[in-house]
Write a structure and sequence with these properties.
12% of the residues lie in helices and 45% in strands. It is globular, with a radius of gyration of 14 Å. The chain contains two helices and five strands. The longest helix has 9 residues, at 30-38. It has 112 residues and is mainly beta. It has a five-stranded antiparallel beta sheet with strand order 1-3-4-5-2. The protein has helices spanning 30-38, 41-44, and strands spanning 12-16, 53-64, 73-81, 86-95, 98-111.
Amino acid sequence: MAAGAFSEPGPATAWVRMRSPLVAGETPSPLTRVLVAADSGNGISQVLGIGDYLFVNVDLSVHLVRPARGEWVCIDATTRIGPEATGLATSDIYDEAGRLGAGNQSLLIAPR
């Protein structure tokens, strides 16, 4: 974690990398690594206790300005909750060369 904490609610920034392939026997491409990391924005920046609420990612939108590089991906994420059991996790995405793009996750939120 570069900022915030996984165990505490609020915005957070984390450098992550895949430790195992998404598909057995295949080496993940830099794009695959970015997309897997982008799907973690809500997970690192939750605003309600993960033990008390479910967060279903209804969709994921990722926009990149250039090809990704390397194994490590940085996700700088903020989650916002709306009044009707919905939310949005927004992430700035970085790699070893700098800012790469952005991701958005629409969320459905429900008590466990």
